Amino acid sequence: MGRVLFVCLHNAGRSRMSQALFERAAGGRHAALSAGSEADPAGRVHPEVVEVMRELGIDLAERKPHRLDDADAEWAEVVVTMGCGDACPVLPGKRYLDWELEDPAGKPLDDVRRIRDEIAERITGLVNESLPAGEKVVSSAKETRG
Question: Looking only at Cα atoms, what is the longest distance across the chain?
């Protein structure tokens, strides 16, 4: 699974958290991109998402939403979708996962933390699928905060 693309609607919440948590968990063994089917490149990552990711030492404040394009999907080996519906690309030869995750936009921080932690658990499982037993990732967002 060398290259993973995370796709949501606006690339300002779920997919941004997923990309950052995946990059941390993969430790350079895999690459990730994120995009949004309706992303506004002039926009920004949701402030509540920036705040809960800073709690983990990850700064998303300067990242800008990226609109999904065909090149993103062609680059990826695995495409993880999160609520982008029919706008998500479907290309032959790719592995697709659909994660039903609540959109964190405008939610209270405790809800955004819960969404972040759920993403972290899914990321841990995704990264571990491709690692030998002795290299499994065991940290989650909860353990990282600790």
Answer: 43
